[in-house]
Amino acid sequence: MLKLPATFWSGVVTFIVTLFINTGISYYSGDQGLATIGRPIMLDGKVVLPLALENFSGKSISGLLLQVPEEVGAASVVRDAPVQITSVSDQAGNLTRSIRIDGIEPKTRTNLFVVLRDVTEVPLVRIINADEVGFMFADGVPESKLHRAVTYGLVVAGIYTVIAVALGYYFNKIIQSLHKRLDEAKENSTRLHENSDKLRKELDDLKMMQSKIRILLLSRISDYSKELEFWRNAIKELLVRRGAPASTSDELIKCVTRALKTFGTRRGSDDFDAIVFAAGVLKDAENKARSVEEADR
């Protein structure tokens, strides 16, 4: 099954919701009525101009002013509903006059027919105060309130949908970019962690190698010190046997030490303690490394 992006479904939902909301608002809070002038009809040599008045509200509407040619009076306007039509005393212009329409019944459509002399007078017929009484004036075929509300809802919903889809696409791109950067940061963090573990292991290995070398060197120094101590004692014993005092043999050994500056050779016990300490450190390091390897497994 084709997987559509979330932005598409968001646009569909936005369009549907916005369509219903705006259609409802336009239908219930729009114009109170609609006045539509139709096409003129030739009848018995005269021109009859149809005018449809549709009251959408729940109350009667009065005071609608219709501009007509000067010779047209209230008697020249035929209606199919009981509305009141009266001529207004003041003139709307040099060639026109106004007639007043009252009592347009609620939720009904009233058809008026204005009798004119010829088609040249058709442009003179129009509603003067449509906005004041809440009417919408249009030329042509009458349009129902529901149809106008749906049309308005479609236009507004389309505009909102385009904006919502564009913003959704833009923010989706930003979120994807942030996710990509987050994944890259995680990969870099993992790589650095692995490098850190590797360097830590190498450092531990170097410490272990250093401890081993130190133990080896200290062991050899300890052996040399023991051998040197043996020869010191042998020389002292030989001198004593030859009749030299013990103090003289000791002084001789000290002179040799001062001459060669080998004072460190007289601390054999310290070297042995250092060997024991280094061996303990090495053992602890090996145990720690072994524990880390077992934990990684």
Automatic annotation (TrEMBL):
Alphabetical UniProt keywords: Aminotransferase, Coiled coil, Membrane, Transferase, Transmembrane, Transmembrane helix
Species annotation: Paraburkholderia elongata
A Pfam match: Aminotran_1_2
Membrane-crossing residue ranges in chain numbering: 6-29, 149-171
GO molecular function terms noted in the UniProt entry: pyridoxal phosphate binding; transaminase activity
Entry coiled-coil feature ranges: 175-241
Aminotransferase class I/classII large domain location: 170-245
Name by which UniProt lists this protein: Aminotransferase class I/II-fold pyridoxal phosphate-dependent enzyme
